[in-house]
Structures are given as C-alpha cells and as structure tokens.
Amino acid sequence: MYESFYKLAHAPFPASPDPAALVIYGDLGTQLGELAGCLTSGQGIAVLTGPAGSGKTICTLAMTRDLTSSLVGLCLRTGQFDQPRELHKAILHALGHPFTQQDDQDLRLAVADAILGLPDHKDGVLLAVDEAHRLAIPVLEELRGLTNLDSNGRPLVRLLLTGQSELEERLADPKLDGLYQRVRAQACLQPLTRAESQNYLTSRIRFAGGDPEQVMTTEAVELLAIVCDGSPRCLNHLADASLQRGAWAAAAPITRGEVLDALTQSRRLPLRFNEPTRNTGEHQATDLPPRPSVEMRETDDGFCSVEVGVDSRQPPDTTTPQTKSDEIAWDLAATGGSDKTSVEVTEYDVVLPEPNTAHADHEPPRPHTGLFSRLRRAATRTTDTDTDRD
Q: What is the predicted pLDDT for the residue at 153?
C-alpha cells in the first residue's frame, strides 16, 4: 500500500466507514446535535436521510459510539428484514442473547425481556437501523412497537432511522401514521460544496498523520473536489485510487496527472463523476474579433437588398493593412469567370417604400445614384469584359 510512501499512519480514505474519521462540515454538526438531543432525551424518533454515498452510515456509527455512555448502542447496518421475526433475531444477536426458531410472538417477548433486563446504569437502548428505506411496512410497525417499551415512564428504546431520500416518502405513507407522528428530529445530508470537499480531503490526510501539502498538490485537491461533485464516497474512492497510482509512479505529492489517470479507470465503475475542467495554466489564444460579412440579394422588383451580418469562421487578414473603405466588399462575379470585381462601400442608401398606389401611377424607374447603381455599373463592366473575351 501507499501509506509508508506518503508517511501516513493508516489509510486516509478507507472503504469501510470509520466513525473516528468523521469530518464535520457546514451545518452537519448542528443537525447531528439535534438528532443526538432527541435520542438522549427520549422524546421521539430521529430520522437521518441523504443521497447514496453522502455519509449516512459514518454519521450513524459516530452517534451510536458517542451516545453509549448511558445507552446500549445497537447499529443494524442492513435494512434487509423482510419479516418482523428477522428484525427480532438481529436485535437479540446484537444484545448477545441466544435465540431459537420461535414464532413471532415468542421472539417479540424475548426482545422485550432482553431490553427490560438491562443493567441499572443504562437508561435504555439506542437502536440505529441503517438503510431503513428498504424496510417493509410490517417491520417499520414492529420498530414503532419497540418504542412503547418503558420503565417508570422512561422510554427504553431510542430509535434512529437512516436511509436514502425514499425513506421520507415511505414514512409519509398513511399506513405509518403512528410511526411518522412520533418523529421529533429529522436531518438531511446535502452534497459537499467544493470548498467543503477540499477541506474534507485535507482533514482526512491530517487524520491519517500526513501533511496534505506533501501528499497532494493544490491543483490535485481542486480537481478531486470538482469531479466528485460533493459525494464523500466518490472523494474517498478517487483520492485513494490517485494515491495508489502516485505511489506506483513514485510521485510525491500527487498532481493532476495522477488524478486524471485514476479518473479514467474509475469511470468503468458505477460511480458518478463530473467532467474535469481545463487546467488554469493552459492559456488559449485570444479569440479573433468577428469579421463583418455582407450579402447582396436581388429582390422581386429588381432592386438589391443588402444583409449585414457577422461571420466568425473567417479571421481577418492581418498580413496587409486595411483601410476603412476596404472592410466590406462583394464578389459580383461569384458565378462567372476568374475575373472578380470588388466594390468598395463608403456609404449606404436608404430606400423608403413607395405608397400603395396603382401600378399605372408609378413613375418610370430612374437610375439610382447611390450604392446600388454603383453595383450595377460594376456588374455591367464585368459582363462586357466576359463578352469581349468570347
């Protein structure tokens, strides 16, 4: 592994959640404090939700560990309980009580006896159920029934349900009104911001006994924060893969290159990553100013219309100086021979529409003295030249 190469006491980004490595960011401390207050006071059920990979499990383990001074902490890491009897067996196993193949009622009584028989110095059981969004309605109802156990008015079971966002919809089911009405604290984990992601990475490295600047460059940390899009799971995976590649290449600290290589390999996995941004050190050539283009069209009445637009695909010719009168030109012999005539434009004529009168009342057309007449004369000269050649 790479720990010795980077002078780390242990792996900073383990795949298994370590509650000791929990990084508090944003308002996470406030939210966990509200959940802890609800659980220690026994006022009701606490619920923690968040998207996959947001750190729900490590938060659950941390609360189960930190609130066990007066409570017996039980953390059921899986929500794969299809029947209430499976839940009862898991609780009995966590409490260290043997169980046999009994019916539902016998198992229910065995769980109640085990909880009521706790030592006097314990106020009850902190029961945390992870992946609770997978629990069936009968199992959730069984958990509600466990919260009814008390001793002299003191609740003996403090229930914490954690799961993905579907848990909120499950609890809102009318069939679970009895459970949902007992919820007194609810928190939702949000994705990390880029600044929080960078702080997460450096905090994990310090927790592992390393110097962040000696392990990762600032550019590498920034790239990890960008492509992982605030997911602690993605941060852990990609940072760990980058450190492994860096150790193989004897690169200390790792740079953007190791992160990009690890990202290429990680895209084969069912994890979501953003596209990396362009390196800020790479400078692109300044975009050339758009070159105005003018198109001449002949209308139905024999006149010409001019459309002025922008053509950014052709950069201006900077080899020869241009004057103001050269900036716009037309190719009047585009469909003719090799000889082409360009007309310089120095002024524009505005032709107002004629009044809507009968055709017989129109005055005979007169030569135009402005732009269009000059265009016609140039076109005529080009045609005469082509005739003389023939």
A: 83
**Does the predicted TM-score (pTM) go above 0.90?**
no
Distances (CA, A) of 67 to 33, 63, 76, 168, 372: 11, 6, 16, 24, 89
> For 79-136, how does the pLDDT look when each residue is reduced to its tens digit (9 = 90+)?
889 899 999 999 999 999 988 777 889 999 999 999 999 888 888 999 999 999 999 9
pLDDT: which is higher, 358 or 280: 358
What secondary structure letter does DSSP report for 47?
A: E
Question: Confidence class of residue 310 from pLDDT cuts 50, 70 and 90?
Answer: very low
What's the pLDDT score for residue 324? 44
Q: Using omega within 30 degrees of 0 as the cis cutoff, is the peptide bond preceding 253 cis?
A: yes
Residues in the chain: 390
Q: What are 310's strand-pairing partners?
A: 292
Q: What is the mean pLDDT of residues 42-70?
A: 93
Cβ neighbours of 340 (radius 10 Å): 13
Which of 197, 219, 200, 191 lies closest to 278 in space, CA to CA?
219
In contact, 45 and 161? CB cutoff 8 Å: yes
Domains and CATH numbers, the chain: 26-188 (3.40.50.300), 194-266 (1.10.8.60), 291-389 (no CATH)
Q: Which of 185, 193, 187 is nearest to 31 (CA)?
A: 187
3-state secondary structure of 292: strand
CA-based nearest residue to 162, from 276, 39, 41: 39
Alpha helices in the chain (DSSP H): 28-41, 56-66, 84-95, 104-116, 137-146, 166-171, 177-180, 194-207, 212-215, 218-227, 232-248, 256-266, 371-389
Determine the longest span between alpha carbons in the chain, in angstroms. 120
pLDDT at 69: 86
Residue 225, strand partner residues:
none
